[in-house]
Amino acid sequence: MTHARVRTHSPVAFTVLAGLLLLAFLPACSRQTGPTTPPAAATLWLEGNNGRLKTSVYQSANLSAHPVLIVVLHGDLLGFRQVPRSTYHYVFADQVTRQMEDVVVAAVLRPGYRDHTGERSDGDQGLATGDNYTPEVVDSVAEAIEQLKMRYSPSYTVLMGHSGGAAITGNLLGRAPSAVDGALLLACPCNLGEWREFMKQNRGNSPIWSAPIHSLSPQELAGSVSPDVHVAVLVGADDDVAPPSMSTAYAETLKKHVDNVTLTIAPGLGHEILLDPVTYESLNALVQGLRRNEQQ
């Protein structure tokens, strides 16, 4: 049975919900100020086919022998206005472990990227034009996930990504269908060709958006996604970088053969959505759905 939902909360209802969730989820970092430094974490260097990937790992206070493993991928620009550069997916990972029980959250520094410490994952960062969603990058992330699974013996594994990280998440679902049990795609440029054309038109027709690339596109791989995986797609209604139509089309394609698909279009939100309360709500619903599935 396929589940697809497009949320169109009234502005008042959404404001109340967002306020309540914000108090619950982001006690240590608001969208207005944010922390000035990333939270402390255990650091792992995981081996991929492009070399080593830095991974910052956060854990709930109490863990069972088989916690839920959540892997987080940042976007192409690694950060945004409300949180200092290179910290936002670390901040998110830390806050999830403070609010959810029995989870390990691994924030992966994508191939070629450097964080606030100066440490860098091996590989090619690319030009942030969709050129970094290559088979090599996707395979490196898949290998890192397998190493994390061996280390933590999770009951379920969830992969989530924001923006370019969402594109890599979608590509991994199609390229390695058995790698994860659930996925959350945020602000996804899921149709790569359409997205690059959109960006070209909205970035002064720069020829950089027409340069040849060999990246993968989630929309083209949607038919290879496992029917058993739980997928949540979340996008801001006012996203002017990865328009909601791309997330909608991807979700509609998935639900033709994937049993558990949800689509949420969040009113009043734009592209920088990772630290918004609705993201935590979507992740929590996804994890709880997997846990309920285990009990049935």
Q: Mind describing the biggest β-sheet?
A: 8 strands, mixed
Radius of gyration: 18 Å
Could you name the CATH class? Alpha Beta
Shape: globular
User: Strand portion, in percent?
Assistant: 15-25%
Give the name of the CATH architecture.
3-Layer(aba) Sandwich
Q: State the secondary-structure class.
A: alpha/beta
The helix content, as a percent range, equals 25-40%
Give the strand line-up of the largest sheet. Answer: 1-2-4-3-5-6-7-8
Indicate the mean pLDDT: 86
| Assembly type | single chain
Overall number of strands: 8
Low-confidence stretches: 1-37
- H/E element order: HEEEHEHEHEHHEHEH
> Distance between termini?
15 Å
CATH superfamily: Alpha/Beta hydrolase fold, catalytic domain
Total individual domains: 1
Number of helical segments with 4 or more residues: 8
According to CATH, the fold-level topology is: Rossmann fold
Quick recap of the structure?
This protein is of the alpha/beta class and 296 residues long.
Would you give an account of this structure?
- It contains eight helices and eight strands, in the order H-E-E-E-H-E-H-E-H-E-H-H-E-H-E-H.
- It has an eight-stranded mixed β-sheet with strand order 1-2-4-3-5-6-7-8, sandwiched between helices.
- Strand 1 and strand 2 form a beta hairpin.
- Helix 1 crosses helix 8 and helix 3 packs across helix 4.
- The chain is globular.
- The chain starts with 10 loop residues before the first helix and ends with a helix.
- The N terminus is likely disordered.
